[in-house]
Design goal:
This protein has a domain of 71 residues: Rhinovirus 14, subunit 4, CATH 4.10.80. By secondary structure, the protein is of the alpha+beta class. 0% of the residues are buried. The protein is elongated. Strands 2-1-3 form a three-stranded mixed sheet, with no helix packed on it.
Length: 102
């Protein structure tokens, strides 16, 4: 091993979670702060809850509420469009891959 290139190793580094749980492990930092640990993560606890990161769930719920308030513009756009009587039917486009093979 080369000298003076490796970080200092702390065999008794403390990890502190946002839920209040803490434990000791080996790391290159003396104190590690984390948001979720095995004591509070839904996968390990078995409870179902949404782990919100930076308000993404709240933002999605607000967007959903706005959509419901405005009505459903997506459904209105999916109605079929009628063609005029004298208009020629629209030609179907062929992909370039099919043209190059022929």
């Amino acid at each position: 091993m080369k000298k003076d290139i490796h970080p200092e190793y702390y065999p008794e580094a403390r990890v502190v979670c946002g839920c209040g749980n803490s434990f000791v492990t080996g790391a290159t930092q003396q104190m590690i702060k984390t948001d979720i640990c095995s004591a509070c993560h839904p996968f390990f606890t078995g409870e179902q809850r949404i782990v919100d990161t930076a308000g993404q769930v709240e933002r999605y719920m607000r967007r959903l509420e706005k959509r419901e308030e405005m009505g459903k513009p997506v459904a209105a756009a999916s109605e079929p469009v009628e063609e005029e009587e004298g208009a020629a039917p629209k030609a179907k486009r062929r992909s370039r891959k099919k043209e190059s093979k022929q």
